[in-house]
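To assess whether ligand presence alters the predicted conformation, the chain was also submitted together with flavin-adenine dinucleotide. Input:
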Amino acid sequence: MGIRLCEEARPWLSRAMGKSHGDASRMIFKAKSAARLLKLIGQEVDSKVFDHIHLAAAFSRLAKLGQTRQLMMTDVGSLVWARMVARLHSMLREDTLGARAAVNIFWAHGKLHQELEALQRAVPEMLTALGATAALIADKVEEMTPQELSISLWAAARLQDTAPEVNTAVPAIAACILHQAGDMTGQDLSNSLWAVAKLQDTVPTVLVTMQALVTCIPSKISGMQPEGLRMSLWAAAELGEDGLANHLKRELAEADVEAGKVEVDAKALTAKEKRDENASLLTNLKSCEKVVLGVGVFFALAQGVSTPAIAMFTADSITTLTGVKDGDEAHMLDDMVPTLIKIGVLAAIQFLFAFGWQTCLAWSAAKQALRWHRSFLEVLFCLDVSWYDEHEPAGVAARLETDIANVYMLFGGMMLAMWNDIACISGLVSAMACVFPANQVIVVGGGLAGMSAANTVIELGGRSLLLDKSSFCGGNSTKATSGINGAGTKTQKGKSIPDNAEIFIADTLKGGAKKPELAKVLCANSAADVDWLVDKFDLDLSLVARLGGHSQPRTHRGKERFPGMTITYALIQMLEKVAEKTNRARIITKAEVFKLLQNGSAVVGCEYKKAGKVVKEFGPMVLASGGFGADFGADSLLATYRPDLLHLPTTNGEHCTGDAIKMGEAIGAATIDLEWVQVHPTGLVKPDDPDAKVKFLAAEALRGVGGIVLDANGDRFCNELGRRDYVTGEMWKNKPPFRLCLNKAAADEIIWHAKHYTGRGVMKFYPTGEDLAKDMGVPLQKLVDAHQKHFEAAKKQEKDPDGGPFPAYPSGKTWDEPSGKTGSGKKFFHNIIDGSKVSTEPFYVAIITPVIHYCMGGLECTVDAECIDKKTGKPIPGLYVAGEAAGGIHGNNRLGGNSLLDCVVFGRVAGKAACNFTFGAGEKFKPCPVPKELKELSK
Ligand SMILES: Cc1cc2nc3c(=O)[nH]c(=O)nc-3n(C[C@H](O)[C@H](O)[C@H](O)COP(=O)(O)OP(=O)(O)OC[C@H]3O[C@@H](n4cnc5c(N)ncnc54)[C@H](O)[C@@H]3O)c2cc1C
């Protein structure tokens, strides 16, 4: 006993490690219940011996337990998940995860997709971890086996709704599958084809693999399981591959005939998928419960069948007994005993049968009731409605959520009305509070602008309700790759960069802002607001770069690769945590705001649609729903203001339909600069899908590190570091296709991006300049000359910075002829090579095209972000705007990095102004009197 206790006390993993590493993984795989496994992992997850293999095994086992319904809601709420996710983050950071473990973790999340929403609510970092795992997978696709590629694509398809970040891995996986489809098994092929059908709308680039998969499947069809055949058939029907669908149908019919089943068609399969998703009560039961129920049914049948026989026998026996003659009383007992014994035995059997089936039924019912009861209680206490999604047809969860919200609203409304009445009677009321009873600020849009506003409201002691029409917050803000500007920040001071608000204002005003007072707020608040991000959200913004149009290095980013995503997620996570821990914040996604509600001229709330229902919310409104760069319809804002751009592709997400502008216009709000839509020169063209409407954007940094732009003839024609409108303008004058070429030194400086774009099929690696010239169809000498002239200009510039013959951008003179001729000559050169190196130099090259990128125009506002009434020119009470939905700040050409800044600065200005409006004079109506630090509230 003593020895056993001692053994128990030793951590299990170290014990297993004493045997072998594999034993430890096996222990994880053998865990019988999720609760037990989570407990074991909880003991070890932070220890040194717990490595990527254990982590992948742990996620996989939990996923398997989830599949067999052994993962309960209480398990989902376990704190161990957060520690596992933290461990995953640290492995990703330290680069110790490896491709195989990443794929297994991806797979596990795919299997756990039903629980994922609840898990993400409990551990918001899970989303970023999944995004980073996806990035790792995209990075390592070339090391992956065909099976791993297929699994990864399958998992991405399962996760696309709950964790759209995983989509970033899809293009790279698809590009690799294209070459490895021939080596895939039937199962891999069917998984991949199914994933392609599921992902085709969200990541259309995945369709590149379709032909390869469709071609390979017929040769592997005989090795496919019926389930694989069904998946492929469904996918082929969805993808319009009728030939393959018919082939699969025949194969499936044969397989089904063999298995004694009827013919199945694609429609029936879709219906089956649906049925499977809403798994019936019976399939939810564990196998032991099924056995008990089976035994119960047997007992019930036995009782049913035996009852008539027993009744007849009993009747017979009674006749026998009543037939005993008088006078035979002495023998009566002897005659009766055997009959009585038989009746007794039969009664006992009957009793046992009845007892048997009733016990079985009661046991199973109790099990189910316990399961439901527990889930129900959890639902009630946590307001977590995902359970209904699992057990009821779609829609119930959303209805329940809305109903709960309505109950809250009703009570909230009643309380506020009462408070207002009391306040009115007691003469406490300011003019503002009479407008409407508002104890919250409503923010429309969960991009960086909306998140900055909502966090600011909380910081100031208000309450915020954030509504976003997408499944997840983030918007375009998560796509930003260059960084955020700031002049006079702590980071700049640490690096002795001589920048300040005045220099920054001068640079920004070159865009021709119609409202320079807004540009001044943007630049003057930049240092404090960038520092706010660093101080309040622990963001790393320690790197600064100088982008085109800026006269100082002031675009901040951290070591992470996607600054927009990192910054926006930090703010989202903070808001989510505050929403979880306090009543100061609420976030509702899939909520499309479509109408502003007014009381007189003031805006007092909005109507939004969620799950087919219209809901009203009351409070001042901050509109932060982004721009209209994807509003392509016939009566869209682009069609109205820039019909000439309708044919261009875009970098914007499909949510960018200018909803704020449309809602504002509907109540008479003024707009400004709507015709100023920024076209970016470096949209990346995918050679095998050149007409795709949504394009990736090449990060500005690609030009910054020394990328040069060549036309179809191999000539340079512009200053690559010029403003976006200038480079685009020069592209229109020259011959496409245009190529952005990075020599080895330039590519090495930004190698992650170069590889990332190459993996996505939007950039190509050429081992030598000779290969590049051949592919471009120009003589090698053309490229040699272009590089040699560029090199010479750079050297002259070095010797004589201000003596060149051509005007330079932003000021001074340049020696660079191709760009100098345009009047905006190149002054800064980086990573140059002379012509003699070109023939043997490796290049990373992308074909680029102009793309709709950013809307400078939007709702017109004051320096306090108040929307302006078109008729009166005065602020509309209760209506504020921030981010890309606002106009007049950037002029006709926004500088790189100024938009994220605009989101933070005006998000905060709008949040503050809306709070002041709600609080009333002397902050009498401040709902949360003691402002607390965000970090404190989120704990
Ligand atoms: C590819 C790309 C790269 C970029 N790179 C940079 C960069 O490096 N630096 C920089 O400064 N800027 C960059 N920008 C621009 C910048 O990212 C955006 O302009 C900025 O993030 C917009 O933020 P936002 O909060 O205003 O809108 P978004 O981030 O787009 O968020 C808007 C949100 O509102 C929601 N929404 C929309 N309509 C409704 C409605 N009716 N009801 C409820 N919710 C609604 C959407 O679902 C979305 O979540 C880039 C843009 C793109 C597309």
